[in-house]
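TASK: fixed-backbone design
INPUT:
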């Protein structure tokens, strides 16, 4: 069996070090490229940060597998052994335009089970951390379990794109929820939206398309606190493929799934 506590100690050390390098890079000119479309951005810092983790992990744990957004890790078809699922910068558009509201996200899975999650808000120097079964902490301060809340008193994180014409969702599906919720927000970093849910700043987060590195760490935190993480049809999330994601407080997840997401029948 892998020594998960030792892995956890290294992961914390490396994520802090990577954050330090990102902060130190702020005065330098970014090299920005596009990927699948003109708004799908990547910088040299995304790439260098991912390479940094891969060098550290491979040198210490050559048998571990790595799934990373920028493609320097392994090609995975299954989750056996220890797998690090890494997004070197989640919220790249915010990183480029705002120099804030982005995070490093690392989920560590053992035989397909989420054991360790780290989400590091680099600019605020806030490290959200979960070790499964031992609670969720922000810079050492423990977060409280999530309880239920009515839609009318809830803040829902949701990008405006999903109530306009789009390829993934009927635009009218979520508009009643937008109207009836207390408020909506969009932060542009799935990992931060997950920790905002974990810390009670928002009550649900809904998005029709994420990759495993966007949610691998966050769902371990949300579930540790009693929150619910599924796709938009209420199915278990798949850590090897793109998926829609719906995370919420317990109870609220049920209410939204039933009243707005029609129990997945849309
Ligand atoms: P990124 O910054 O790591 O690319 C933006 O609303 C959120 O969605 C961010 O977490 C962003 O991650 C993610 N995202 C951006 N483009 C995406 C894409 N093409 N597929 C999946 N997730 C994406
Ligand atoms: Ca990206
Ligand atoms: Ca991401
Ligand atoms: Ca990214």
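OUTPUT:
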């Amino acid at each position: 069996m892998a020594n998960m506590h030792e892995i956890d100690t290294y992961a914390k050390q490396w994520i802090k070090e990577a954050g330090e390098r990102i902060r130190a890079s702020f005065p330098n000119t970014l090299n920005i490229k596009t990927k699948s479309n003109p708004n799908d951005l990547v910088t040299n810092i995304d790439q260098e940060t991912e390479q940094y983790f891969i060098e550290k992990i491979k040198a210490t744990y050559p048998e571990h597998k790595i799934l990373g957004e920028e493609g320097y890790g392994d090609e995975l078809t299954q989750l056996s052994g220890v797998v690090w699922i890494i997004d070197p910068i989640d919220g790249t558009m915010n990183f480029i335009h705002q120099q804030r509201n982005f995070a490093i996200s690392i989920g560590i899975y053992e035989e397909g089970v989420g054991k360790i999650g780290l989400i590091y808000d680099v600019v605020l120097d806030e490290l959200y951390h979960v070790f499964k079964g031992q609670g969720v902490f922000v810079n050492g301060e423990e977060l409280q379990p999530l309880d239920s809340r009515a839609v009318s008193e809830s803040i829902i994180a949701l990008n405006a794109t999903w109530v306009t014409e789009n390829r993934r969702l009927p635009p009218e599906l979520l508009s009643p929820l937008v109207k009836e919720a207390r408020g909506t927000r969009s932060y542009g970093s799935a990992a931060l939206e997950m920790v905002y849910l974990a810390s009670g700043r928002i009550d649900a987060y809904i998005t029709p398309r994420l990759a495993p590195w966007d949610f691998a760490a966050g769902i371990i935190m949300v579930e540790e606190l009693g929150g619910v993480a599924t796709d938009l049809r209420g199915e278990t999330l798949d850590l090897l493929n793109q998926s829609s994601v719906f995370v919420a407080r317990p109870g609220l997840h049920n209410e939204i799934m039933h009243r707005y997401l029609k129990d997945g029948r849309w």
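COMMENT: The chain has two domains: 4-142, 151-264.
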